[in-house]
Each structure stands twice: as structure tokens, then as C-alpha cells.
What we know:
By secondary structure, this protein is α/β, with parallel strands linked by helices. The protein has helices at about 1-20, 25-40, 80-90, 150-170, 180, 195-200, 220-225, 235-245, 255-270, and strands spanning about 70-75, 100, 110, 125, 130, 135-140, 175.
Amino acid sequence: MIKISGLIILTGFLVLGCKTGQYTETNKAYKTQAKEFAAVLKKYPLSDSAGLNYANSWVGTTNFTMRRPNFVVIHHTAQNSCDQTLKTFTMTKTQVSAHYVICRDGTVHHMLHDLLRAHQAGVSKWGNATDLNSSSVGIEIDNNGFEPFTDDQINSLIILLGRLKRAYNIPSANFVGHADVAPGRKVDPSRHFPWKKLADNGFGLWYDTAKVQPPADFNALLALRIVGYDIKNEKNAIQSFKIHFTPADSTAGLNEADRKILYDLSKKYQ
Ligand SMILES: [Zn+2]
């Protein structure tokens, strides 16, 4: 018995050692990069990260804080395991990253300080906000895009979102999906993602069309824009709207039910 327990402990130790050792080098690279950014912030007199100086007179104010994220962008990884995603986000040649990765068993990996900019959303727009990378926290959920998300994942996600919402005072309407902010270019998180459950918990908004009757002159496209979608390409905007709000409907156009939903949502998102 003792021998067996010893073996189990040893095996556990080796597995743990191997896992932490795997990222020793990239963790060092993270620290070096973070130190370089800290040095930019400490520079006196002021010059910004592009090395620009805007005035000869430097008078430091006493009243300031760090810039904070005001959006959360949710993704699915489109990969087959958390290990695969951690590897992808620690290889410089990929140039992609996220602040958090949530595995199928609910484990959360924190990969980047919330106040730093991850390369997750790419070219993006929500309302009048562009470059969401500069204003959002990016969360990747381990999922290949064709399967349901696990309860453990969604439970971990809801806890994490609650912390982010409280810490940075992020409005409910500003919890969005990658497809929402990059219509036509992205479709994640997929139609399997439980947006209604999230909205019930205060992350994103949801509709109730029970007593809704849009007026005859109601403009559904304009409503899409009010909700936040970039409507430059109407077809793409509708596709992203449907992935998020009517996942069971894979048709291309807006029907009467969609018009009701958009009428209701446009009042909530405005
Ligand atoms: Zn994505």
C-alpha cells in the first residue's frame, strides 16, 4: 500500500513538474516584456510608447489611475485542447493571445494582466468603439466550434465575468462575442454558446417579445446598429446577430420574429 501511494505521489509530482517546466522560458519572456513596458511608464520627462514628446514643459499631475478595460470579448478557441491553445498563445510567431483561457474541466488559465492589451479581437467594431483589443478583456473557451460548452466551463466563466464586471465596472451591454464585433470575419463563440444564461446573470442583454409590436416604420437594420453591430455589410451583421440571439435559426434574412427581437433589444441596448 505504501509503495503504491508513493508511486502515485511521485507520478503526480512528475506530471506537475513537467507542466510548469513547459512554460518556464515563455514565462521569463512575459516578465521581460512587462518590465520593458514598466520602463516606458517610468520615463521622465514624459514620452509615450512610440517615443513621442508632446511638450517641453513637464508637470506631473498627482491624480491618475491605470486605464481599465470596459468590454469583454468572448471566443471559442476552435482548437481541440487547452494544451494546444496554451502552446499557440506562447509562440511569438502566432501573434495571438487572450487574457484568460477556460478549459473543458473549468480550469482557468490567466495569461495576461487585465490592464495590458491582448491580441484577440483584431479588426473590430461595437457601437462606435473600434479596436476592441485596446479596451477589452479577451476570454477564450476551449471548444472546437461544433460542440456544446461544458457546465464546468460556463460556471467558471460566470465567476470570472462577475469579478471583471465588479472590478472594472463594465456595463452589462458590453459583454460581447467575437462574432458580434467582427461580423463576416468571425463566428465565435458558436451557436452552442449559452448567451441567454449569461444575460440572466448580468452579462449581455436579452429580449422579451411577449408584448412587443414594432411600429410600421420600424427599421430593423437601424436597430441592429443601435444594438452595436457594424452594418456596413448587412448580411454579415444579420449572421452575427443570429448566432448570438437566435442560434436555432440558420436562415439568412430577418423575419417577423427577428424584427420583434430587434425592436425590444434596440430599446435595451440604446
Ligand atoms: Zn475569436
